[in-house]
Amino acid sequence: MIGLTTQLLGTAAESNVTVGASTPVQLVAAIQNRKVAWLQNQGIVPIWLATTDAVAVGSGYELAAGATFVDEFTNGSWWALAASSTAVVRCIAVV
User: Which of 28, 42, 45, 60 has the most CB atoms in a 10 Å sphere around its CB?
Assistant: First the structure.
Protein backbone atom coordinates (compact mmCIF):
# COMPACT_ATOMS: atom_id res chain seq x y z
CA MET A 1 0.00 0.00 0.00
CA ILE A 2 1.34 3.42 -0.96
CA GLY A 3 -0.54 5.51 1.57
CA LEU A 4 -3.84 5.98 3.32
CA THR A 5 -4.75 9.47 2.17
CA THR A 6 -2.32 10.22 -0.63
CA GLN A 7 -2.55 9.84 -4.35
CA LEU A 8 -1.82 6.41 -5.60
CA LEU A 9 -1.72 4.10 -8.52
CA GLY A 10 0.51 3.87 -11.48
CA THR A 11 0.70 1.06 -14.01
CA ALA A 12 -1.63 -1.83 -13.10
CA ALA A 13 -1.50 -0.94 -9.41
CA GLU A 14 -3.92 -1.60 -6.57
CA SER A 15 -4.33 0.10 -3.21
CA ASN A 16 -6.83 0.91 -0.47
CA VAL A 17 -7.44 4.55 0.44
CA THR A 18 -9.22 5.87 3.53
CA VAL A 19 -11.64 8.65 2.60
CA GLY A 20 -12.84 11.03 5.28
CA ALA A 21 -15.71 13.52 5.45
CA SER A 22 -13.71 16.72 5.88
CA THR A 23 -10.98 16.85 3.20
CA PRO A 24 -11.19 15.52 -0.39
CA VAL A 25 -8.74 12.70 -1.17
CA GLN A 26 -7.26 11.94 -4.58
CA LEU A 27 -7.99 8.29 -5.36
CA VAL A 28 -6.47 8.08 -8.82
CA ALA A 29 -3.98 10.45 -10.40
CA ALA A 30 -4.28 11.50 -14.04
CA ILE A 31 -2.49 8.96 -16.23
CA GLN A 32 -2.43 9.69 -19.95
CA ASN A 33 -2.50 6.07 -21.15
CA ARG A 34 -4.83 4.65 -18.49
CA LYS A 35 -7.33 2.18 -19.87
CA VAL A 36 -9.50 1.75 -16.80
CA ALA A 37 -9.89 3.00 -13.24
CA TRP A 38 -11.87 0.72 -10.91
CA LEU A 39 -13.09 2.07 -7.56
CA GLN A 40 -15.00 0.06 -4.95
CA ASN A 41 -16.48 1.60 -1.81
CA GLN A 42 -15.72 -0.92 0.93
CA GLY A 43 -17.09 1.31 3.68
CA ILE A 44 -20.55 1.52 5.24
CA VAL A 45 -21.25 5.13 4.17
CA PRO A 46 -21.66 6.57 0.66
CA ILE A 47 -18.85 8.57 -0.89
CA TRP A 48 -18.98 11.27 -3.54
CA LEU A 49 -16.67 11.20 -6.57
CA ALA A 50 -15.54 14.05 -8.83
CA THR A 51 -12.74 14.78 -11.27
CA THR A 52 -11.46 17.71 -9.19
CA ASP A 53 -10.69 18.36 -5.55
CA ALA A 54 -13.85 20.50 -5.43
CA VAL A 55 -15.86 17.34 -4.70
CA ALA A 56 -18.64 17.90 -2.17
CA VAL A 57 -21.34 15.81 -0.54
CA GLY A 58 -24.38 16.00 -2.80
CA SER A 59 -22.31 17.01 -5.84
CA GLY A 60 -20.68 14.67 -8.36
CA TYR A 61 -21.19 10.92 -8.54
CA GLU A 62 -22.55 9.12 -5.47
CA LEU A 63 -20.94 5.75 -4.83
CA ALA A 64 -23.04 3.79 -2.35
CA ALA A 65 -21.51 1.56 0.31
CA GLY A 66 -20.44 -1.68 -1.36
CA ALA A 67 -20.84 -0.27 -4.87
CA THR A 68 -18.26 -0.22 -7.67
CA PHE A 69 -17.45 2.57 -10.15
CA VAL A 70 -15.58 1.85 -13.39
CA ASP A 71 -14.14 4.60 -15.61
CA GLU A 72 -13.13 3.32 -19.05
CA PHE A 73 -13.48 6.63 -20.87
CA THR A 74 -11.31 9.27 -19.19
CA ASN A 75 -7.74 9.34 -17.97
CA GLY A 76 -8.04 12.20 -15.48
CA SER A 77 -7.93 12.26 -11.69
CA TRP A 78 -10.69 11.00 -9.39
CA TRP A 79 -11.26 12.58 -5.97
CA ALA A 80 -13.56 11.45 -3.16
CA LEU A 81 -15.24 12.67 0.00
CA ALA A 82 -17.23 10.50 2.43
CA ALA A 83 -20.80 11.51 3.25
CA SER A 84 -19.97 11.08 6.96
CA SER A 85 -17.40 9.24 9.04
CA THR A 86 -14.87 7.42 6.85
CA ALA A 87 -14.87 4.81 4.10
CA VAL A 88 -12.17 2.66 2.56
CA VAL A 89 -12.01 2.64 -1.22
CA ARG A 90 -10.22 -0.09 -3.15
CA CYS A 91 -8.60 1.41 -6.25
CA ILE A 92 -7.17 -0.31 -9.30
CA ALA A 93 -5.76 1.41 -12.39
CA VAL A 94 -4.66 -0.40 -15.52
CA VAL A 95 -2.45 1.22 -18.14
Answer: 28
Element (H, E) at 88: strand 86-94
Distance CA 41, CA 68 (A): 6
In a domain, 80, yes or no: yes
For residue 65, being part of any structural domain is answered with: yes
Do residues 15 and 91 lie in contact, with contact meaning Cβ atoms separated by under 8 Å? yes
How high is the pLDDT of residue 12? 61
Q: Residue 6 falls within a domain, yes or no?
A: no
Provide the residue type at 92 as one letter: I
Rounded mean pLDDT of 13-38?
88
Q: pLDDT at position 10, please?
A: 46
